[in-house]
## 1
Amino acid sequence: MSTSLENKKIVSGDPAGRAFRQERVAVLPVAKRIRGLFAGRTVVDSTAALILFEHDHLPVYYFPVADVDEAVLVPSEKSTHCPYKGDASYWSIAIGDRVALEAVWGYEQGIEGAPDLRGYRAFYWNALDHWFEEDEEVFVHARDPFKRIDTLRSSRHVRIELDGVVLAETRRPTLLFETGIATRYYIPRADLRAELLRSSETITACPYKGKASYYSAQVGDRLVEDIAWTYTFPIPDIPKIEQLVAFYDEHVDVWVDGELQERPVSTWS
């Protein structure tokens, strides 16, 4: 549940990062220690990474070659071309009997107008077993430093309906505001119509909130799968949503203080 930074590049000399100019691809230095593990071995460990932003893509870490365990890399014949970054070469990771095919890439020749990525390597996030920022494990993808999440307790009257049937109603919601995503209303379990909800086997992960489990809604003969979710054990940064339940507003009617909210149009519509 995340969005990518679009067309933004920090202007050199602006340490606060508040001045921008339009670019297709942009990079920023990362002060965090970033580690990636595969088959029980640390294959990258860096305090000098770059984070790359590209229009309509998730952010990606690029690491100095010196911080990558080249002993486990096997060159591949694969190559790809990006008009914004150049020609990429690829490497597989081989440790014991485990191999991650073409999991690493790098741009060994720069092109005019693009960030200079020579001497850096990037990894497909899902190819590695574990990622850590400092000593905290991170899931799904690199965290976007431009994304902000605020969770605020509220006394607003929120009612969730599906086909005119009330699924939840509360005057004590927690509102979650996430950059680029519609407001989500997290509702105490005691304020749910629990008899209308069915536990789902679906589990997803968010790098900013943790692992989510899901509920489907049964209204009459209609079953709407995975219409709500909860973070039973959110990451420590987002404690206020623990055990609360949110619905996909794209598929339900949401009333806030007596006013029907417009359904957002998003990836989940």
## 2
Amino acid sequence: MNTPLNDSALQQLFTEARTFSNWQDKAVSRELLERLFTLASLPPTAANTNPARLVFLTTPEAKQTLAPALSPGNVDKTLSAPVTVIVAHDTAFYEHLPQLFPHTDARSWYVGNDALIQKTAFQNGSLQGAYLIMAARALGLDCGPMGGFDNAKVDELFLAGTGWKSNFLLNLGYGDRSRLHPRNPRLSLEQAARFL
């Protein structure tokens, strides 16, 4: 039976969690990243498509390769983060459906339907990117998701020949809270929600 998370857990995941641009000089282990991958792979996607693909940049050399594709305002925060993840999606995700959704021929739903392929890959890959953020926070990591980069250049540098397409970048590590700005406002319930 599910029980609500306590206030401490909700603070870590939501109310006290922030987007970080400045990082402590503290490494993130390969073992923790593997645990993060496993945890983030479990929540739902449409027909268990699991189109997200992740490239973990953990070395200075990999970060320097990425740097020319970044907007100027994202260079320092990315080079100083212990890990940067290229959150991408696989446009041939449906080839894995015999393994991932074996009780019916789900692959046939997508073959030849490029509009559905692109929509499913982007929509569900984005959803998995959000799961990755929440899983990282649950494991004690801080996050700095960002756009502000040249997708075509990232795809050329890191994803050539894979059929994968970059969506967004996610810096991971242990954030420097002393350099945070106050949290920006959010829309109110009245502004952003309707009950019908």
## 3
Amino acid sequence: MTDRIVLAYSGGLDTSVAIRWLGEETGAEVVAVAIDLGQYGGEASGDMEVVRQRALDCGAVESIVVEAKDEFAEGFCLPALKANALYMDRYPLVSALSRPLIVKHLAEAAKMHGATIVSHGCTGKGNDQVRFEVGIGALAPALKVIAPVRDYAWTREKAIRYAEERNLPIDVNKKSPYSIDQNVWGRAVETGFLEDIWNGPIEDVYSYTSDPSQPREADEVIISFEAGTPVAIDGQKVTVLEAIQQLNKRAGAQGIGRLDMVEDRLVGIKSREIYEAPGAIALITAHQELESVTVERDLARYKRGVDQRWGELAYDGLWYSPLKKALDAFIEEAQRPVTGDVRMTLHAGRAVPTGRRSDHGLYDFNLATYDEGDEFDQSLAKGFVDLWGLPSKIAAKRDAHL
């Protein structure tokens, strides 16, 4: 029986060329697996039927398209939202969240089609090679991995020449200056003139967001949560996917979610990336605001550290690790009281909370007010302050004599 390779297929140049190349080099049949994560166009033109047919035309024996937008939103974006996941305090893990879901479907396809090898189109400089291969190792450790672009030093020029020589059905003349990865959670853009970190991004870079400097009316939105999950927008019930999609449009129209950053890649180099994630940034902003009202102080302080570590694990390709699983359980427990509404003004590139309410809130007006009705016994404060500062006071007296 002929061996089979399952290929993570995007519909772009590298993975389309990989179908033919893998077949020629290994003699194996290639099964292409494309995952619909709400790409909104991009390199594969967004038409998943076109993507499916392109794989077959390039030589795949089977071409599978998995509709996974809801699965992605519920199983990957939502945990990131509950963790307020922002790598380096800024990046909402656009690409990092999609890779473990793709890996899951690759492993399932390999089992279904009797494949012993999986393949991907990642380079040796990026994080995605780690995310794919560590994930495969966790879910299907018996599978081998082939990475043609990395392991055989492919360049875009080589791939174009290969496609032209074999008359592969790829329009190689439309050479974009950028490398783009996108899904419903956001969009990542790199390479081209952006590799000079002094060059500012131009409007041509952006697709999910409008220019925040252009005059427009502000947009007020109320986002409702139950146990950390967004369940309604302006009183209308939504799924997690619908919440992301609606806020992508509304926050995107206000230019919210644009990021220009030099980030620390897992492989040890720094890389300049342009991101736009309007829905993700709006939801995380609202979620953080509601947590500030509903999560007890010490738990909130500790969770901030957990959130940071959670984001690092997801970024570093350790989605299926024991630590990530344990942190998921902690975060889920911390979300139990995170129910209520947050009102925000979306305008000029910013999502600004202007109101918050919750039946599970810890804010007590009668304790917080300075007006009539104040129930806070200020006479207790002096003794508290004295005891709180006592260790520092004693140490200062000692240090004065050292």
